[in-house]
Specification:
By secondary structure, the chain is an alpha+beta fold. It has two domains: about 250 residues, no CATH class; about 100 residues, PDZ domain (Pdz3 Domain, Roll), CATH 2.30.42.10. It contains nine helices and 16 strands. A hairpin with a 2-residue loop joins strand 13 and strand 14.
Length: about 375
């Protein structure tokens, strides 16, 4: 029961803040260009239940279901399919009365806030926790992974004993050769293993007390992702000694920008892999999978690791929303760009059809990921 409560509170924490800031970005951007904000909700207002209060022209509220939020502005046909946005008379406070750049500013503001949150969190973590680098580049083993998770030839995930454990490698052993190739640093180890999946390699090493060993072992493949396609990457199961390096705030910011960019690019290729069919949906987590991961992180790794997970989710929330999918910010932005190019509004019945299609796509993905989570967690 305690585990369930921790998972529940953890997922509310790591998801509600990125969503709130996303919607706050839309709210502030709308105000900055004179778009009327009709509703600003944190959480989803199921069955009209929740807390709400109207201040001036805007209704503010906290919805019953905490994992969500939305900003409703005048003059836009969104996923709510509100008929208010279909009136023929255009008013100067409506979204549709604004020029293309103002529309894009409003639509992109939520995504920008998500990316900023990710960078801010990673900057904080990097500045206070520092970074880790190799204590030295010599191929001296610091730690052995006894069990590793691999992907077999049938694309099933298994937990097996690592090659390093099977060889009998120990802490402070020095790896000398792999397949008769001389090993002088950790890069050499990686380059001689990653492409040897399902192959038998010969490893030569020297123990800390000066004894020499030479044995063979088969290299399994761990899960890797290459531009949206699942690949198998050879793994030995050893790690090097690292030392903590303190960094200044500007260096931490630079590292965090690169880290956020790397996550966005990697996640984009993952999305491409799903669409193209190269990435099996069993590797995609939905709300239940994230909840389980959040609970595990909160209990085993602590608050700072939970913050790192929030930054990762915020980056992905920004990426998903910028994709040109009907019903998402990117879909609205594409419509705004098209209307700017053709210099007239797309017919409202077409917009309704597009938004309804987007609603069906989003709900289908939601139920698909929930089903996938149930299968992965409980079955």
């Amino acid at each position: 029961m305690i585990d369930i409560l921790i998972s529940f509170l953890s997922i509310i924490f790591i998801i509600s803040i990125p969503i709130f800031l996303h919607e706050l970005g839309h709210f502030l951007a709308a105000r900055s260009v004179g778009i009327k904000v009709e509703k600003f909700y944190v959480g989803i207002n199921l069955f009209g239940l929740g807390i709400k209060k109207k201040i001036n022209e805007t209704e503010y509220g906290i919805g019953l279901f905490p994992l969500g939020g939305y900003v409703k502005v005048a003059g836009i046909i969104d996923e709510s399919l509100d008929s208010e946005g279909s009136k023929d008379e255009i008013k100067d406070y409506e979204f549709r009365s604004k020029n293309t750049f103002q529309k894009l500013w409003f639509l992109s503001a939520g995504v920008i806030m998500n990316f900023i949150l990710s960078i801010v969190i990673y900057t904080f973590l990097t500045f206070f926790m520092g970074t880790y680098e190799l204590a030295n580049d010599q191929p001296i083993v610091n730690d052995i992974q006894e069990n590793i998770t691999i992907l077999n030839q049938s694309n099933d995930t298994l937990t097996v004993k690592s090659p390093a454990f099977l060889l009998g490698l120990k802490k402070d052993d020095t790896i000398l050769r792999i397949n008769n190739n001389r090993i002088t640093n950790w890069t050499d180890i990686s380059s001689n293993v990653v492409n040897k999946v399902d192959s038998i390699i010969t490893v030569e090493w020297k123990t800390s007390n000066g004894k020499f060993h030479k044995r063979e072992v088969e290299i399994p493949g761990r899960i890797g992702l290459d531009k949206g396609q699942i690949i198998r990457v050879g793994v030995l199961g050893v790690s090097a000694a690292t030392v903590k390096k303190e960094v200044g705030i500007f260096e931490a910011f630079k590292i965090s920008v690169i880290q956020t960019y790397t996550i966005i690019v990697s996640s984009f290729y993952g999305f491409v892999g799903i669409v193209s069919g190269n990435l099996d949906l069993k590797y995609v987590s939905g709300i239940l999978g994230i909840a389980k991961q959040a609970g595990d992180v909160a209990q085993s790794a602590g608050f700072l690791s939970l913050l790192a997970l929030m930054a990762f989710i915020s980056s992905n929330l920004g990426l998903i929303n910028i994709l040109p999918i009907p019903g998402l910010d990117g879909g609205h932005a594409l419509i705004a760009i098209i209307e700017g190019v053709i210099r007239r509004e797309i017919p409202k019945n077409i917009k309704y059809g597009i938004q309804f299609l987007g609603f069906l796509i989003i709900m289908s993905l939601l139920f698909l990921t929930i089903f996938n989570d149930i299968k992965n967690i409980f079955l």
